[in-house]
Amino acid sequence: MDTNKTLSRRGFVGSLAAAIGYLGLGPKSVLWAQTGRRPRRRYTEAEYDAFAKLSSNENPYGPSDAVLEAMNHAFKYANRYGYPDGNILQAIAEHHGVEPENVLLGAGSGEILNIVGSTFLRVRKKVVGVEPSYGSVYRQASGIKADAIKLPLLSDYRQDIPAIIDGTKKNYRDVGFVYMCNPNNPTGVIVTKKEIDTLLDGIPEDMPVLVDEAYHHFVEDPDYATAVPHVLEGRQVIVARTFSKISGMAAIRLGYAIAPKNLIDQMRPNGTGSISAIAKWGGATAIKDTAEQEKVRAVTLELRKKTTAELEKLGFDCIPSETNFFMVHLGRQVQPVIDEFRKRTVLVGRPFPPMLEHLRVSVGTADEMERFMVAFKEIFPDGKPAPTGA
User: Fold this and answer.
1) Widest pairwise Cα distance in the chain
2) pTM, full prediction
3) Mean of pLDDT over the chain
4) Going from the N-terminus, what domains does the chain have, and what CATH number goes with each?
């Protein structure tokens, strides 16, 4: 990747229990919670810049030159309302072969997930999904006095499609929507196209299904496919995408939903409309910048495979990932290890209950991955962990 863009980029920025839940709608106390999640610490600029940042699955290279140029251009509208927006809706619609009426913008896909929760979890409805997964949807449910039916992963870390279907059908009157992160965060494991088809055919046809495709661009497995074609079929599917990963715009905050018009119309009143001109112009350019996307994808996959191979040589098992992160089984509780990495100025992922012996590691630059491996060998000087039966 071109590291000569660093200064211009900085200049721009400077300006078991779960089964009980699905079978009988057990109380919140029997549902796995996102325990162990610590408040995010705010570092000084010098502290933050010194870290190898492998904790939040960002693109470490930042926006492309073309995207930076577009965002700089948008600054001339910084003092205006009703500005030209770079035709962002049309750009997204054309990219996916849908109409602008099928697109809803959000301040990152995180806002899209919150909008879906606010729209479809009213009157104490439930969301059905797996644990562990990206917990924003479940926290949103808790925040609006709704609830979640969270099912355990299978032994090979795949999402249990028959159990999701069963739980949705048994609790149909109480379910607002089904949530599926594909590939899943934090495991990096996909749900295949066939499994998505099975899910949609197995649940009531009017049940909304939210498919979070934040890591879509990194998948190599030929059995995977985006769920966007199901939107074109008129199925009640909402596909969430983000510019935070492949396009390097995490702090710019831009994401979107692709869904049938009837679902978009229901969701739109719950949006904040808080997306800036800079984000819109950057996104309109980024979605067309496929050459940059391919460069980021290629180097990311290369470094992920190199790092996991090194870990496996040391005797540590890694879950096969289709994303820009991976999970390694440490054979011990993960939180003290996270703290040891931080002492060595390497930030890694938080604990993900119930997988409390697995560490999630984002793929950074080549230098950051080298720093990670040096720190890893210091923390685990004897290599292969002793088996714990976990």
Assistant:
1) 61
2) 0.88
3) 90
4) 26-62+290-379 (3.90.1150.10), 65-286 (3.40.640.10)
